[in-house]
């Protein structure tokens, strides 16, 4: 084996010794990676599971539907607008120019938001790959590879939030000897847990707001619009906290993922929250129907918010730090009841079931 | 009115009861062979906890990170006959102008720490804001731990084991030649027995304490008699004559030499070992096993096998299974075992994972048995007192991650690349090919902070007592 121990007296020999800096750490890590593959390192890959095959031919034709429809509609629209503008020109050139200018504006702004949306979607995809990279480093327990990833994430988040405080705590606590798993854990608990708190506050705020709006709004249709509006606003803000902000178009992608996740995770979430939900039901049962609806909507939005957090957080949640719906529900319930009590102490607000029965 | 006051009284009583229920006690058994670093470990553990309020180097102790641990103090314990752990002396030695490692233990000692913390559990918090965790730590010479496997052996078994180990070691047989002259079937005077026994003790001490043939260093009090020095209970030795070992002993008269030796051996087992472990390891909740892997790596294959054998014998004694005597003797309450590779600061940080894997492989069999019993088990590379730093050095156009520190033997500052630890078990041939040179480092004179630098002591604390801060 080429690997022989070396011992050097510092004083006797003039030898190039450097303090270990980040770059050298990376080199060493690469080396150790190469060395360890020599020992037949077995990584914990998850690809060993069987995969369901997809019938390709069928899918290809189905896939063509949306693009072709889009092209058709877009082509028709362009043609139609061309005719429309030409028509206007024939009426009056000034009106025609104005219409052209407006059409140009539509095209430019549309293109810009398309590009932005595409960028933000790429950011989300990028975030997903970071999540995977982090969990791989955690499971393999390597040394010296995580710092670069952490710096990347720091600079991404740093564009939207001032992270200097938590980062200085992180650098103060990290030691040269910490391996990747420990560094990521440390980063997660010094920097990211602060972000989790901000995100949870945002979610609570939006959930409470929409709960109150729904509780007060007289129209069912307005409720739906409210939910759509508030939830999309919330997704935007929460994703911004984690440094991968989603724009209007990008949000569609995020919303779709959040919804899919909620449906997939829904069953397990429901089981986990079952105990809490029972308690929640007895609470909602004591307040009037409209308020109960409001709380229901608030909970839905909160759940969407938590799913967004899961998608956007660079390091995946562990059992210790995963956000709990019960936390939001409690403050939601407290806020909504106190607000409604204050605003309408005599009517519609909080009623004990018995009283309601008496009135009836 | 009277109703209200009586309710208050009841509530107060409930509160007191709860307080007593919430206050907790953990007893930690620090186990490890001599030289594994038990004293340094306990000193560092106490140091970290006693400075908990201004110690920001414990990020992985969750309760401390949450700011819930308020303060720690050394308190007096109930077992008044046990001397106190010499924390101050150990610390003084470390922070001295000419620092030295804390002296190794020659007797038993105990320390008790009271840790005050804020309760996290929402329901308990309503009854009581703060609570107290009492941690008992016991220090004792590692040599005595070797007695534990003796409890399962008879005098004949023990002699047989010594015979086999001596055969294997192919060493100086001077004592054995002398022992051949003994006539085991006949009585022998007490002073003659004492003389032969002293010679035997000197013989094993001289020949095997460097060799790490730990099971020949039994009984532990042959090496470190403690308060038993000179007592006749220690005047015995194994029978190494194979003919006599294979013969039938049932016809021997009770005043024959063999019977006398057997009697003393049994007395030692019954009156010395059993009470010792019964007293100190009863009611143990958590156990940490400290292993000095570097010594094993430095000394090669035979030492590896010896250490593996000794440690698995040791862990077998601590087993928690149904058929085990220890189950009958102590109520088995150990629910967490931490196996720690000490002196991790002597190893470049990029190799800590390999060090952990090496230790895991070494104790694979025992770990499997322990995990089967449902015990929570963890392996960590730790350093109670960190005395080196990692540097990159270029040697023959190769960049190597080394450790830099003051060499203990020479007092010079050295940069050491100890060789690459293989993360899997090596065959005998590979052991001979692979060379290691782990240097013993001294404590540098420039330790300024009163908190000892460490590697992963916070993870140790989290594993051993972290779950108690609820």
Automatic annotation (TrEMBL), chain A:
The keyword Transmembrane helix applies. It comes from the Bacteria. It is found in: Cell inner membrane. It is a multi-pass membrane protein. The keyword DNA-binding does not apply. PANTHER family: UPF0283 MEMBRANE PROTEIN YCJF. Belongs to the UPF0283 family. This is TIGR01620 family protein. It comes from Kangiella aquimarina.
From TrEMBL, chain B:
Coiled coil: none annotated. This is YcjX family protein. It comes from the Bacteria. SUPFAM superfamilies: P-loop containing nucleoside triphosphate hydrolases. Pfam families: DUF463 (PF04317).
């Amino acid at each position: 084996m080429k690997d022989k121990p070396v011992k050097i007296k510092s004083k006797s020999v003039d030898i190039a010794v450097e303090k270990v800096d980040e770059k050298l750490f990376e080199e060493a890590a690469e080396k150790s990676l190469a060395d360890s593959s020599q020992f037949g390192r077995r990584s914990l890959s998850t690809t060993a599971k069987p995969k369901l095959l997809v019938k390709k031919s069928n899918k290809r034709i189905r896939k063509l539907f949306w693009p072709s429809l889009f092209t058709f509609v877009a082509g028709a629209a362009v043609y139609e607008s061309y005719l429309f503008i030409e028509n206007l020109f024939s009426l009056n050139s000034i009106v025609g120019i104005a219409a052209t200018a407006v059409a140009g504006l539509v095209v430019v702004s549309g293109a810009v938001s398309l590009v932005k949306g595409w960028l933000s979607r790429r950011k989300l995809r990028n975030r997903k790959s970071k999540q995977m990279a982090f969990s791989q480093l955690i499971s393999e327990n390597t040394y010296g590879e995580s710092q670069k990833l952490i710096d990347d994430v720091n600079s991404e988040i740093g564009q939207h939030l001032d992270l200097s405080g938590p980062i200085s705590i992180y650098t103060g606590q990290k030691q040269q000897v910490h391996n990747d798993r420990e560094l990521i854990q440390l980063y997660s608990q010094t920097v990211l847990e602060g972000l989790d708190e901000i995100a949870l506050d945002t979610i609570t705020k939006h959930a409470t707001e929409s709960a109150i709006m729904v509780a007060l709004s007289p129209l069912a249709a307005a409720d739906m619009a409210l939910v759509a509006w508030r939830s999309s606003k919330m997704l935007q803000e929460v994703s911004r906290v984690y440094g991968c902000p989603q724009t209007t178009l990008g949000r569609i992608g995020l919303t779709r993922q959040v919804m899919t996740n909620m449906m997939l995770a829904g069953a397990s979430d429901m089981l986990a929250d079952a105990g809490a939900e029972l308690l929640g039901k007895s609470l909602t049962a004591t307040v009037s129907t409209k308020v109960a609806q409001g709380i229901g909507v608030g909970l839905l939005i909160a759940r969407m918010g938590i799913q967004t957090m899961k998608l956007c957080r660079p390091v995946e949640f562990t059992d210790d730090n995963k956000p709990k719906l019960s936390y939001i529900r409690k403050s939601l319930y407290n806020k909504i009841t106190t607000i409604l009590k204050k605003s309408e102490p005599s009517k519609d607000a909080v009623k004990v079931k018995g009283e309601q029965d008496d009135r009836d | 009115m009277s109703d209200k006051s009586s309710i208050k009284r009841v509530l107060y009583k409930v509160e007191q009861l709860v307080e007593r229920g919430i206050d907790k006690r953990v007893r930690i058994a620090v186990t490890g062979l001599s030289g594994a670093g038990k004293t340094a470990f306990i000193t560092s553990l106490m140091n970290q906890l006693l400075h908990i309020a201004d110690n920001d180097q414990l990020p992985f102790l969750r309760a401390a990170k949450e700011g819930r641990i308020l303060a720690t103090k050394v308190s007096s314990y109930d077992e008044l006959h046990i001397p106190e752990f010499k924390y101050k002396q150990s610390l003084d030695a470390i922070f001295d102008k000419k620092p030295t490692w804390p002296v190794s233990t020659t007797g038993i000692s105990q320390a008790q720490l009271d840790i005050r913390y804020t309760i996290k559990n929402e329901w308990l918090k309503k009854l009581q804001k703060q609570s107290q965790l009492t941690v008992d730590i016991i220090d004792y010479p590692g040599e005595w731990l070797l007695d534990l496997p003796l409890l399962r052996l008879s005098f004949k078994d023990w002699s047989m084991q010594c015979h086999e180990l001596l055969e294997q070691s192919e060493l100086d047989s001077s004592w054995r030649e002398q022992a051949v002259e003994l006539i085991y079937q006949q009585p022998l005077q007490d002073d003659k027995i004492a003389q032969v026994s002293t010679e035997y003790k000197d013989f094993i001490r001289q020949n095997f304490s460097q060799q790490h043939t730990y099971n020949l260093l039994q009984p532990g009090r042959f090496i470190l008699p403690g308060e038993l020095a000179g007592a006749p209970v220690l005047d015995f030795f194994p029978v190494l004559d194979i003919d006599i070992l294979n013969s039938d002993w049932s016809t021997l008269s009770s005043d024959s030499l063999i019977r006398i030796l057997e009697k003393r051996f049994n007395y030692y087992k019954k009156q010395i070992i059993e009470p010792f472990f019964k007293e100190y390891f009863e009611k143990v909740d958590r156990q940490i096993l400290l292993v000095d892997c570097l010594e094993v790596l430095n000394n090669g294959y035979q030492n590896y096998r010896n250490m593996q054998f000794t440690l698995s014998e040791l862990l077998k004694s601590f087993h928690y299974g149904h058929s085990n005597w220890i189950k009958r003797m102590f109520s088995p309450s150990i629910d967490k075992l931490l196996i720690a590779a000490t002196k991790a600061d002597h190893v470049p940080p990029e190799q800590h994972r390999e060090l952990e894997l090496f230790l895991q492989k070494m104790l694979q069999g025992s770990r499997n048995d322990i995990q089967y019993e449902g015990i929570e088990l963890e392996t960590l590379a730790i350093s109670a007192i960190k005395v080196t730093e990692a540097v990159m050095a270029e040697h023959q156009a190769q960049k190597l991650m080394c450790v830099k520190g003051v060499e203990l033997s020479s007092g010079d500052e050295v940069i050491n690349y100890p060789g690459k630890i293989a993360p899997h078990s090596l065959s005998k041939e590979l052991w001979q090919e692979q060379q290691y040179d782990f240097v013993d480092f001294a404590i540098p004179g420039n330790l300024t902070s009163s908190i000892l630098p460490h590697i992963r002591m916070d993870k140790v604390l989290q594993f051993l007592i972290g779950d108690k801060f609820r």
